[in-house]
Amino acid sequence: MGVSAVFVAILRRDLRSALRSGSEWANPLLFFAIVCTLFPLGIGPDARQLALLAPGILWVVALLASMMATDSLFRSDYDDGTLEQMLLSPMPMYPLVLAKILAHWLTSGLPLCLMSPLLAVILQMPMSGVPVLVVSLLIGSAILSFIGAIGAALTVGLRKGGLLLSLIVLPLYIPVLIFGSAAVKSAIDGVVYLPTLALLGALFMLAVALAPLAVAGALRISVDQ
Fold first, then answer.
1. Which residues cross the membrane (predicted)?
2. Which residues of the chain have pLDDT under 70?
3. What is the residue range of 66's domain?
4. Rounded to 5 degrees, what are φ and ψ at 58?
5. 8 A C-beta contact, residue 152 and residue 71
């Protein structure tokens, strides 16, 4: 099989597995919806205050929701031996890892982006910021998937690596959080937001180029231990 055929096969297998289990895509989505709807109850019904805090709230909760499904990214493949076979195969690891990260984003990051406009309305966000929110989440959640994959690869051999995974990836998430929420805030304030989105795009390109290589190296270290 060619590299493209293997890429498609892994992508389809992971998507089918995620859709069958349900929890991999439903739990982050429910967490995102529930936590965002709780903020108006805790902060109060003041529309101006909610609108002021909405970009940060949506981005922080989306970041935490995205991280929920990260620990299981390579866990099942490690448990059944598939991961070891991938490492031993003559295929380059880059497209194999890229397929798994793409499947993870399609089942965890993309649903969050699609739900964000509804939650933005609940949080009284001005409509001028909603398109930028969706675009920034589309780019930013993909970056979070790449970064999270590095942490998942480093902790895949640990039985309870969830806490360690959080400690590894959260500091790396901070630039994405800053640029993403700043772009939305700039759009709401009527300030130019394209430079901030461009920085997110640059981080995305950097993640696509380097993160799968780092993940492949981390998987070899974890499996060899």
1. 25-43, 50-69, 101-123, 130-156, 162-184, 191-219
2. 1, 22-24, 160-162, 225
3. 3-224
4. -60, -40
5. yes
